[in-house]
């Protein structure tokens, strides 16, 4: 990143608020000398966090006042209607006004999606925004969407997700021509529900690199750069994966703590276990993209620590620098032979 | 098990056929002196396998001829129409005729489901059979259904799955009053699709022990004895879990093989790694139940080895001994205040 870039940070969001968002923001501006971050939230709390971490006086960090905070369990409709001066809302407003090129929030997912959709609007040709994240797999990583924004999806929605996700992977991922798979309960043509079968047809007929159905276990063997599914299924796939990984970690801990001998073994195996933990560290993959909006919005995990929130900011920086929304808009224009709108 | 019991084994099914099914059957009859197994398939191949493993002459093992085998990739409709003398079909026919109290097959899932449904029929009040299996979790295990038989499900179907699964857990599981959870993308009331929301209402209004929505990561923390979902979602949850577990195993292997030091650590940690593998060993959980039919049908993993297939036979023995289908029928009768039909 060389050009000047400004991002709006919902500095009050997430389980830990400024105690995490402020030091993460400080680390981000140290890494990117031309980056400016608007820290949106309660000025007193933000000043205090800046002072506590020795970050006062940086010209790259600008406090942007907002008097309210959206609760982690607040209903999205309530947040949208009654919290017009929340740190989340003001951060998104800054994207809308053009003062910021992206917004990063660790707040309530539903409220973030509802507010971003209301304020920024979707791109022409996109019915619904989707949530996309990066997931580690053997020999690499893949991206998956939707992860919970849309519980019921038509074939057209799934196709739109594929378009948006492939633009993202092209721009900020590892694949120039992303392999797109449709999540299904088998690889055979005859399997799956009607939406998935029709989406397969749409993808086959398009110029995208469609590689067919992907069964959920094969996602982790690097068979696709992008896995497309409805939000219900995607959420279940992601959460099942997280649940099993946590269970295996717990089993490993228990087995290594069983007796003196196994505790000694744990000491010997420590570098290996650390390497394993590093490879699976969810913090390295923090920062999900809300795709399909007229602006870049990044959702950090609510329980993110400083390292994880830094990663979410980094995701925002990359997507803003690449201007993902206008790339998606251009791609939709090509696919549907219309002029770009934005 | 004390009473005499006869099971029909599709001895040609699965990736390995008689080389796995025959020694597994021999081990099962050794464990249960009053168990008889009908080994259904090609008599020559079965005789040969029996001789090879020293199992000829056992009065508990009876060869039952069948001239055909259903291919692992064969279309269910084709198998049903054209392979009327397949080992799978004949094994199911023996359940229908009352000669066997259960059928165990490692064959093609779709063909097994289609044939079992056609031959045995569903219980009154059950629209669709479902596939149910046991999954390990922290401090125990849980059962989950449906795992792929039904891609689209109404609320009523989900409710039927809950009834069938809870009868199974009561009879052969660990819980006298199984906690039933509905798989959803969040624990809040407002989340989920319409089918799931309506199924929640049906469960709340019933006498079953409904514990609410369960998010996929929490399944692995022993929050429910039975997790209910449609077959598409269930398949994705199960396969995602398997994929992540396989990936973590692979990462562990790679990290332990990285250099001389880590290889030495692997030697020291070997008992721990073996204990971990034992706890996660999918063979211990082999044998999925096709619930909702007028007979016990157990589906073994196609790639099952002898230990795994033995476990599937064991599942069949338990469910036959408890007569799960008539228990389900009786429960449906209670719930809908009708006389038991079977």
Q: Which sequence of SSEs, written as H and E, runs from N to C of chain A?
A: EHEHEHHEHEEHEHEEHHEEHH
Classify the fold: give the CATH topology of the largest domain in chain A: Isopropylmalate Dehydrogenase
Oligomer: homodimer
Shape by Cα distribution of chain A: globular
Task: Pick out the low-confidence regions of chain A.
Answer: none
Roughly how many Å apart are the termini of chain A? 23 Å
Please give the number of β-strands of chain A.
11
CATH top-level class of the largest domain in chain A: Alpha Beta
Characterize the main sheet of chain A: 11 strands, mixed
Indicate the structural class of chain A.
Answer: alpha/beta
Query: What is the CATH superfamily label of the largest domain in chain A?
Result: Isopropylmalate Dehydrogenase
Counted by DSSP, the helix tally of chain A is: 11
Specify Rg of chain A, calculated over alpha carbons. 21 Å
> What percentage of the residues of chain A does DSSP assign to strands (E)?
15-25%
